[in-house]
Amino acid sequence: MINVIDAHHSVLNLFLAEIRNKEIQGDRMRFRRNLERVGEILAYEISKTFSYTPRTVQTPINPAVVMLPEQDVVIATVLRAGLPFHQGFLNYFDHAGNAFVSARRVSDRTTHQIEIRFDSVYTPDLTGKQLLLVDPMIATGASLVIAYRELLKQGNRPVHTHIASVIASIQGVDYVEKELAGEPFTLWTAALDKNLTEKYYIDPGLGDAGDLAFGAKK
């Protein structure tokens, strides 16, 4: 199941428009902040799927009963492009654990084939947790699937995984659904685009999220 958030118009559309707009993308601070804002909106939407139990808090006047989420959350992202997006989720799930996967995407300029090389995985125990695996772009879906499997190699397993992106391609979504069939997961994206370029960028997409957020790399 995939949830496409911009199908229901809201202020999210403004943030997405600025993220895509090449005239505004030159402002790295604003680009990072918009990724963060989209993360906050997706965190809010995902929180609606959690289970809640009543708790009593003492106000200055009288006790009040509030409904609070039962789930423990771990937010995971692939370095480096995912950092501002990750922060948006952390702004809302501020008691969450945090996991990071260090990876490099190596492209063959002749065949355009992409190899994903993973360097390190840093994660708390995921057992029984709600894992939020957040990545700004799901293009082919390959790096996200590998990141998920690398996290599971640490010897623990979440009760459910929410995979969230700013923009996903239909091809990437299809790949994730096929590769993770049978796993307990839900897909979320702010926007869903139809195509990939021959270099595996989402079309129309937004370009290279990591470079736009932090500057071009060698």
Mind explaining what this structure looks like?
- This protein has 218 residues and is of the alpha/beta class.
- 32% of the residues lie in helices and 34% in strands.
- Strands 1, 4, 5, 6, 7, 8, 9 and 10 form an 8-stranded mixed sheet that branches.
- The chain starts with a strand and ends with a helix.
What layout of secondary structure does this protein have?
Layout: E1 2-4, H1 12-20, H2 22-25, H3 28-47, E2 52-58, E3 63-69, E4 73-79, H4 83-92, E5 97-107, E6 114-122, E7 130-134, E8 137-138, H5 142-152, E9 160-169, H6 170-179, E10 185-193, E11 195-196, E12 202-203, H7 209-214
Helix pairs in contact: 1-3, 3-4
Q: What overall geometry do the principal axes of the alpha carbons give?
A: globular
Low-confidence residue ranges:
none
Q: Count of helical segments? A: 7
Strand proportion: 25-35%
Give the strand tally: 12
The span between the termini is 37 Å
Q: Name the average pLDDT.
A: 92
Order of helices and strands: EHHHEEEHEEEEHEHEEEH
Structural class by helix and strand composition: alpha/beta
The major pleated sheet works out as:
8 strands, mixed
Radius of gyration: 18 Å
What portion of residues is helical? 25-40%
